[in-house]
């Protein structure tokens, strides 16, 4: 299982890097657009659309990474009041339901991309597929992290590499 944990660590590093890169690009683009708009009464064609696409990437990848870091929505007050054995069952069910929901999202997103992915974006004129493809990727990563967390839940010794 050490290989699985090493893959998780490498994947988390890559995702963090991509999220930081996308966030930095969003920051630079927005600052540039504000300066151009209010300072020079000008703009960069397609920059707003690019910011939206980068935000989609940041959100989809970030949501999966948060599951890996066990930072998803939870109500710890109630969970901590449960007996340890039942707490494990609740956490296991939690990850199973999250994985199932993301599996359904993958299924429907591929159908959605097949239908609408060929349409061009309004300003950049690139296929919408490039913005949409991150949804099933993010959901797949979320499933990976759910499996990772379930493995750790079942065998806590595997958490250390």
Overview of the structural elements:
The protein is mostly helical and 161 residues long. It has one domain. 78% of the residues lie in helices and 0% in strands. It is built from six helices and no strands. The chain has helices spanning 2-40, 47-68, 76-81, 84-116, 129-132, 134-154. Helix 1 packs antiparallel against helix 2 (47-68), helix 2 runs parallel beside helix 6 (134-154) and helix 4 (84-116) packs antiparallel against helix 6 (134-154). The radius of gyration is 20 Å and the shape is elongated. The termini are close together.
Task: Produce a short descriptive summary.
By secondary structure, the protein is mainly alpha-helical.
Sum up the overall morphology in one term: elongated
Tell me the Rg in angstroms: 20 Å
Percent helix range: over 70%
Order of helices and strands: HHHHHH
Number of strands: 0
How many helices in DSSP terms? Answer: 6
Largest sheet: none
Straight-line N-to-C gap:
9 Å
pLDDT averaged over residues: 93
Number of domains: 1
β-strand percent reads under 5%
- Show unreliable segments: none
Specify the structural class. Answer: mainly alpha
Topology diagram in text:
Elements: H1 2-40, H2 47-68, H3 76-81, H4 84-116, H5 129-132, H6 134-154
Helix pairs in contact: 1-2, 2-6, 4-6
Q: What would the keywords be for this entry?
A:
6 helices; 161 residues
């Amino acid at each position: 299982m050490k290989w699985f944990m090493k893959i998780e660590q490498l994947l988390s590093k890559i995702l963090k890097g991509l999220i930081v890169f996308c966030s930095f690009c969003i920051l630079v683009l927005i600052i540039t657009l504000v300066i151009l708009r209010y300072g020079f009464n000008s703009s960069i064609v397609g920059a707003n659309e690019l910011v939206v696409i980068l935000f989609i990437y940041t959100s989809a990848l970030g949501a999966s990474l948060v599951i890996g870091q066990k930072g998803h929505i939870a109500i710890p007050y109630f969970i901590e009041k449960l007996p340890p054995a039942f707490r494990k069952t609740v956490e296991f069910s939690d990850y199973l339901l999250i994985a199932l929901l993301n599996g359904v999202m993958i299924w429907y997103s591929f159908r959605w991309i097949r239908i609408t992915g060929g349409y061009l974006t309004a300003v950049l004129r690139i296929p919408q597929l490039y913005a949409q493809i991150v949804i099933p990727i993010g959901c797949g990563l979320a499933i990976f992290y759910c499996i990772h967390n379930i493995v750790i839940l079942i065998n806590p010794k595997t958490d250390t590499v």
